[in-house]
Design a protein that fits this description.
3-stranded antiparallel sheet; about 425 residues; mainly alpha; 18 helices
């Protein structure tokens, strides 16, 4: 590992990219600790832990505590951009023009990116207005006398929207000039920043030194166990062999080689967990805006520790895993591309037969990946219920999957950069 890092810093271009990434992430964390104008940080920190749950807790996790700990200028975090990207991905199925842009190569991707930015700003405006009024009401319900005037609200909304646009720009800068995917690395940095807080809560939850040491050792063992399982599943793939026929173009011969198409066990990533959480936590979110018996009753049944919630959560994750995989992986498009370049799968009829073959494989390998996602998602709740480890309140299964996935992807990119320059990599 040390030799790997040393080799990475030996390459001037790679060294600049790594340092640039760290500088942008440091600037982002600085902004995540600067409160918006006109807000009392001491009053914000007095909000109860119950207030920070649900969908807002997920937003606070992705914002690195910038929402409920400081109400910082980056309080919206990366959520507007993630939501906009998911919406644009889903609209590709409905709007033919987006599908055409996706097939146009770099020019089409730029058009989609531009519309994603516009949608991000629209969502940022809506979310910032909602969060401003929600924060004011939560403070008032906590008997904290804080009043926002019209000018104060306007300044807060403008600050939050500007912060969301700045985050989007920072993420694109990292992607272009740094190492790895900028948006993913920002989420990674936010989640990692919550680790010391979780460890402190876990340590303070026990009274004796022996109990504290035992709790920390149990925590380390469980985290390592889950991380190994995540790495195993994230790296799992079904390799479909593809044979390309020989083609003669002019005086040159092309093709005649064998390769494979890798199909991941978990193609949807962490998106099914986010979708399932949003659907089940939506009634609880509505109780913050519309206090009433109806929404309160539904939110009570869907408490995050109840058996009903865990069962529905698992089923929704499996459903959204199939749903999102069907959107991002198009078997018919894959088969057409293979046929276009003179390829075929041995023993499978080209064209529609290949598409049916891909669909069957996707249906088979998505199920174990979806079940694994469901187990990882409910794991923290079970651990908190039986072992009472506060660490998993801030650092749940979603966070673990994101951290491990981003770390693996970044290491692969560094690995490829080093191998291009004849250095031995880290991943074996």
């Amino acid at each position: 590992m040390i030799e790997f890092i040393r080799n990475a810093f030996k390459v001037p271009d790679l060294k600049k990219r790594i340092l640039f990434t760290f500088i942008i992430l440091a600037l982002y964390r600085l902004g995540a600790n600067l409160p918006v104008p006109g807000v009392d940080v001491a009053a914000i920190s007095k909000l109860t832990a119950a207030t920070r749950g649900g969908l807002l807790g997920l937003m606070d996790l992705f914002a690195g505590g910038a929402l409920f700990e400081r109400f910082a200028i980056f309080a919206l975090g990366i959520m507007p951009y993630i939501t906009a990207s998911i919406i644009m991905e889903l609209l590709r199925v409905v709007i033919p023009k987006l599908e055409e842009w996706a097939k146009e190569g770099e020019i089409g991707r730029r058009k989609i990116t531009q519309w994603t930015r516009y949608l991000t700003l629209i969502l940022a405006v809506v979310e910032s207005i909602g969060l401003t009024f929600l924060m004011e009401r939560l403070l008032r319900e906590a008997n904290i006398l804080v009043r926002f005037g019209l000018q104060d609200r306007l300044v807060i909304v403008i600050t939050l929207v500007t912060g969301a646009a700045l985050i989007m720009w920072m993420g694109e800068l990292i992607t272009e000039r740094g190492i790895g995917n900028g948006m993913s690395l920002i989420i990674f940095a936010n989640i990692i920043s919550r680790v010391p807080h979780g460890l402190t809560l876990t340590y303070q939850a026990q009274t004796s030194v022996t109990a504290r040491v035992g709790m920390l050792l149990t925590l380390i063992f469980l985290v390592l166990l889950v991380m190994v399982a995540i790495i195993f599943v994230e790296s799992g793939q079904r390799r479909i062999p593809v044979q390309y026929a020989k083609r003669i173009v002019g005086r040159k011969m092309y093709g005649g080689q064998s390769t494979y198409i890798p199909m991941k066990l978990n193609s949807a990533g962490v998106i099914p967990i986010i979708f399932a959480s949003s659907v089940l936590l939506f009634p609880g979110m509505l109780t913050n805006f519309f206090p009433g018996k109806f929404f309160s009753t539904i939110a009570g049944y869907l408490d995050t520790t109840s058996a009903l919630y865990l069962i529905l959560f698992s089923l929704f994750i499996i459903f959204f895993a199939y749903f999102y995989t069907a959107i991002i992986v198009n078997p018919l498009e894959l088969s057409d591309n293979i046929k276009k370049y003179g390829g075929f799968i041995p023993g499978v009829r080209p064209g529609y037969g290949t598409a049916v073959y891909f669909s069957k494989i996707l249906n088979r390998i998505t199920l174990p990946g979806a079940i694994f996602l469901a187990l990882i998602a409910v794991f923290p709740t079970l651990v908190i219920s039986y072992l009472n480890i506060p660490f998993f309140k801030d650092f749940g299964g979603t966070a673990l999957i994101i951290v491990v996935g981003v770390a693996l992807e970044t290491m692969r990119r560094l690995e490829s950069q080093l191998l291009m320059r004849h250095y031995e990599g880290f991943l074996r």
